[in-house]
Amino acid sequence: MGILHHDNEFGRSILELLQKELKGTGGIVEAEDIKPAIVDLKESIARLIDMEAIYITGYIGLLENIFKQLKEQNFRGFILSMNNASFPTIVTIPEAQGSYVAAPIIYNPNFLFAKEMGEKYVTRYDKPINHAAAVGYDFIKILAGLLEDKEVSRESVKSVLEAGFIYSGVFGTLNVQPGEHDIVFPLHPAQIVDGEIKYLR
Amino acid sequence: MKLKIGTKLIGSFLLIVLLMAVMAFYSASLSQSSLKEAVGRSSIYLVEEMLQRIDQDIYLKLEVLQTHSKHKVLQNTVLQSNEEFEKLASIGDFVAQRDREWTTAAAEEEVTSHMNALLSNELANGLREEFIHFYERKYGYRVFAEVFVTNKYGANVAQTGKTSDYRQDDEQWWQITRERGFYIGDIEFDTCIGTNGIAVGVRIDDSADSFLGVIKTFVAAEDIIREAEIAIKKYETTSIKLTTKDGKLIYSTKAFRFLEDVSEKVFIKNVKGESGFFIAEEGGREKLFSFAHSKGYRDFDGHGWILVMGHDVAEVLKPAFTMRTRIVVVSFVFIVLGIFIAYIISRSISKPIIAVRNAAVVIAKAI
Predict the structure, then answer these.
(1) Which residue, A47, A200, B132, B159, could crosslink B148 as a Cys pair with Cβ 3.0–4.6 Å?
(2) Cβ contact, residue pair A108, B139, below 8 Å
């Protein structure tokens, strides 16, 4: 399996995780890092062209470029990507069709909570909602709920977040245990089909 | 005290205008109370409707399980397991031994070959597909967090995930299910699955209504509550809190701590009777709270949960506040206008009278 990743801490952390996961199954990871100024990825893609699958990671603009160049280079394997590839701007490009992504629940039309919120968002801003906006919405709601009837101060924010909480928002239910320092917004395996996210599980 | 005729006229006009203003204020305040009453009462209906939806949805999950308990693969697997157990010299000893092995392995997060067999048999795969994956694919979240089946001796036969123990007949839910035909537990946090929900059990009977075993699931409660919340009409500032009958928080539209004791919070302290509404301050805002208790559905008695729905008073009484502001402005304009008109009219009446009076004085002096 190949990976095209940004040459930064985030990109390298994804590479390490992928190597760790594939090691258990006997797979091999061939990595190609992308320097910030590089736009032409022909050489990197050429080195990974025979891979069974390529995992791509990066900012939305970079992902769009990678999808297009993979198509131009006629890559025939599976393309897998991170949550950024589930942004509406990527999902609608022809080159991304058939790719597998880790998608948040927000794009599932059967998830009524997010659907209702998405409709309100379109009415207000005249553009479809994406999960970056939804993270902001959810986080403000989390803080507002936890700080209700409490003093608004740094100490207060720290203590309410450290105490753990449950929140049902546009990403489903977040269950943060006391002392946990990460808020994990759940992602689901999905495929980009006909300009939409099709959830696989 | 003698008053000038002009003063009397202006005073009379002003009195009428003031009386009108007082009446308008009184009507505004009356309509504000009526609106408050109407919103409060209609919110009680919403709260009751939401609670009914929740109970109905829980009951629906029970029915899904009841329907599934008649499936051929399930019936055959449980029947076969019962027959195998009947051949054992001591069923009790066998189950106890397996349970010890199971709990030891489970504590060490180990999956034994016996566990694996129950996780991957035909029934387990079918349950996983129908109860777990189907809903996960469709909605993006688990409606049923786990499902497992026991034979009539309380031993696991198939399961979608690893349970903490093998023997279930020593559990209260299992005994109630066998006796009553079904079981719906109160909301709880399941450490095995790492989520909170409601345990639902159904007795498996054969075509002759003989007891074969039990099927149990753990229904994700938050999604049931959230679906019910979306379905009811509400204001922008509407917040919902659901507590157990003794005031432990089990759901909130805002971030919350599961089973936090909120019995001393203002929105629970004012809950008196089966249903009602009240105004109280929360988070520095005046809110109109409506509440009701869950009553169950069909032969499910419900849990007596308390649902409290709050709306910002500023939002729900906005029409009344707008009307009051308009009345203040219009009354002020009318008072100023009234003074002016009264002055003009009094002048037009008093001027000729004064002229006549002056003429009379002149004539009197001439005589």
Answers:
(1) B159
(2) yes
* Domain range annotation of chain A: 2-104+186-199, 112-176
With 0-12 / 13-18 / 19 or more C-beta atoms within 10 angstroms meaning exposed / middle / buried, residue A158 is exposed
For A141, name the nearest residue in chain B, comparing CA atoms only: B254
Q: Which amino acid is at A51?
A: M
Concatenated DSSP letters of B237-297: T-EEEEE-TTSBEEEESS-B-TT-B-TTSHHHHT--SSEEEEEEEETTEEEEEEEEE---B
Residue B204 — left, alpha, or beta (φ > 0 → left; ψ -120 to 50 → alpha)? beta
**What's the distance, CA B346 to chain centroid?**
63
Per-residue confidence (pLDDT) for residue A26, from 0 to 100: 84
Rounded Cα distance between B67 and B131, Å, is 12
> Nearest CA to CA, how far is B194 from chain A (Å)?
9
d(CA A172, CA B136): 12
Closest CA to B228 of B46, B42, B53, B43: B53
Instruction: For residues B265 and A196, give the distance between their C-alpha atoms in angstroms, rounded to a whole number.
Output: 45
Using a CB-CB distance cutoff of 8 angstroms, which residues of chain A are in contact with residue B223?
Answer: 168, 173
CATH architecture designation of domain A2-104+186-199: 3-Layer(aba) Sandwich (3.40)
Confirm if B206 and B75 have CB atoms less than 8 A apart: yes
Is B182 in contact with B205 (CB distance < 8 Å)? Answer: no
Give the residue among B239, B56, B11, B305 at the shortest CA–CA distance from A168.
Answer: B239
Instruction: Provide, as residue numbers in chain A, all residues whose Cβ is less than 8 Å from the Cβ of B257.
Output: 163-166
* B325, B330, B332, B334: CA torsion to nearest 10: -160
DSSP string, A65-108: HHHHHHHHTT--SEEEE-GGGGSHHHHTSGGGTT-EEEE-GGG-
Q: Is A163 on the interface with B (CB under 8 A)?
A: yes
DSSP 8-state code for residue A50: T
Tell me the mean pLDDT in the region B39-67.
94
Closest partner CB to B258 (pick from A110, A166, A201)? A166
The string of pLDDT tens digits covering residues A100-112 is: 999 999 999 888 8
d(CA B128, CA B209): 26
Q: Which residues contact A195 (CB under 8 A, 6 or more apart)?
A: A91, A92, A97
Those residues whose C-beta lies under 8 Å from the C-beta of residue B31, and which sit 6 or more positions away, are: B320, B323
3-state secondary structure of B9: helix
The pTM assigned to this predicted structure is 0.84
CA distance linking residue B253 with residue B242, whole number of Å? 9
Give phi and psi for A168, each to the nearest 5: -100, 110
- Contact at CB, A165 and B257, closer than 8 angstroms: yes
Residue B1: pLDDT band (50, 70, 90) is low
φ/ψ (deg, to 5) at B125 = -65, -40
The whole-number average pLDDT for the span B276-296 is 92
User: CA-CA distance, B300 to B55, in Å (whole number)?
Assistant: 8
